[in-house]
User: Fold these one by one.
Assistant:
Number 1:
Amino acid sequence: MSASTFPMVSAATPGREMRAADGLWFGKDLSASEPIPEAAIERAVDLMRSGRLHRYGEQGSGYPEPSLLEQDYAAYVGSKYCVAVSSCGAAMFIALKALGVKVGDKVLTSSFTLAPVPGAIAHAGAQPVLVETQADYTTDLDDLAHKLETSGARVFLLSHMRGHITDLQAVRALCDRHGVALVEDCAHTMGAKWDGRHTGTWGRIGCYSAQTYKHINSGEGGLLVTNDDDVAAQAILMSGCYMMYEQHILSPPNSVFERWKYVTPNFSMRMSNLAAALLRPQLGLLAQRGKTWNHIYAMLEARLRKAPGVSIPERHPKEEFVASSIQFSLALEPAQIQRFLQECELRGLYIKWFGGQEPKAFTSNYAHWHYITEKPVLTKSMAVMSQLLDLRTPLSLTEQDCELIGQIVAAAAATAATPV
Ligand SMILES: Cc1ncc(COP(=O)(O)O)c(C=O)c1O
């Protein structure tokens, strides 16, 4: 399929006659990505010229790009090990397997997350047990405490969904009290911290994404971090090193591999040399990107708060988030929110909604995941999701863009609230 026939979710550029009467028009592509840094392109081209794109080799010398990336990333977050894999979904699956999750086990997870998270649990043959989400889009700690006590789960896969970080000291204390292992899904929190410490380093394992719409971009890619020798050895073996684990710079002692190498399947979820070469130069950009994103967030937050019916939760002072998107709640009924979305689209602004009846594009909610057999009754989460709107914030957004987005949201919310 050529690019010109690609069925876009929101490609509509209505003709002038179809646009809103107030003349407001945004029209920018919020899914736009930053270019890959030239140094990364050059390294990738060198690699392509060599043809050596697989990270492991039976002959040759030097460490491959993913080993160097693992070393850089572990130093960046302050963990002992990092294993580069094919996606964050792969990292979460490997994390669950390395912690001994078996077919039929229960795994606690966030109700506010996206499809790859329950998907990783299903991939391990386990059943998600969903934890309530509260009005500030973080985990409801009372519900977590209750389910840690009653669910029988041995692992909590916590999703820092859309960069909203639950009090990690509190989560960790609760998990420790019940002997439950914490795994963090940091697909939306690369570079973010809680109380000065990187997300992904608060539990046994942290999982990150390097997919195009995340903080660093190799198209697809994932990183798993841990301080645990046995988890690291299993993750290296499961990701698909065959028996070439010595080609990892951050590698547990051989004696640890001896414990695992005959009993650990190879799931072929490695990162390629090419993906790692694209990512390494991007690590150095994370700090500046984070500053720019948070500046855009602050500009949008101030403007969106002025729109009728819109509320945005205050962030906790310990939460050092990195906002690559912004979420807000709109106090309207579902039919009015549908109208709101249409009004935004008429003004060239693509907004996503977590409360839709149908899953759409990247967006879905737990009610759409029918393979979860234990049907959750999550009144708090559904109340939050039914009014929850979501806007991607590319680094290219200007102050004028933020101003215009604020005006469009205000106009669309006012129209949607008006009885027809
Ligand atoms: C919250 C969340 N977790 C995990 C993932 C999985 O990331 P990946 O696409 O790298 O598997 C995604 C993907 O968008 C996500 O949104």
Number 2:
Amino acid sequence: MEKRGVAIPLESYHLARYAVQVPCYVCEQGNLFDADYCRHCQAPMALAHQANSQNVHPAMIAAVGPSGVGKTVYLGMLMDMLSRRSSGLQGLARGAFSITLQQEAVAKLARCEFPRCTHYEPDRWNWVHCQVTIPARRRPAELIMPDMSGEAISDEIEHPDSLLGVRSLLNRACGALCLLTPPNCRKGAWNRITSRSSCSAICTS
Ligand SMILES: Nc1nc2c(ncn2[C@@H]2O[C@H](COP(=O)(O)OP(=O)(O)O)[C@@H](O)[C@H]2O)c(=O)[nH]1
Ligand SMILES: [Mg+2]
């Protein structure tokens, strides 16, 4: 009987993939190709993989405001309204992780509860990458809007460069949505953020 050779694939080539660093979409620092979260700023690496594989360069919008002002509820409801096309604009979630914020907020509100407090660490925030179709524009807008922790934003304002995730986001964001309560509206640091031309301020009470 004739014996046939068995082909055993050489797995060592996998190691070569570790030699190429993948830049994080938020802080632009290098990571291993199979990292789930950036080891420098804790942002999800899915944002970088999605941008590379789909060849899109989403703009980042920072939703800022003190803890408890209503950022999570506002962003969750905004995503729900955009996905239902209730305002003429249509939002389409890019990637499964992008619908968690909307799902959690809507599920809680439907039970007459509010969403739980946002975690401090960027790897536990809800990150939204969505495509928004605007009737007057031919090309849809690609946006990344993380639901940031108010405590982490306040810490970064008080101790600059202590939280790379927050700092990189604020530096790279092309616009900011600032939610404030009346007493915060008069505070210096938040005033400086809202006075930037690319910032929309919403006062909640
Ligand atoms: N009445 C009312 N209360 C709200 C609303 N949004 C938020 N809140 C209250 O504000 C708290 C904090 O909301 P949240 O969205 O988690 O704030 P965040 O810390 O800025 O993300 C909630 O637990 C509610 O008590 C709203 O639309 N209406
Ligand atoms: Mg929150």
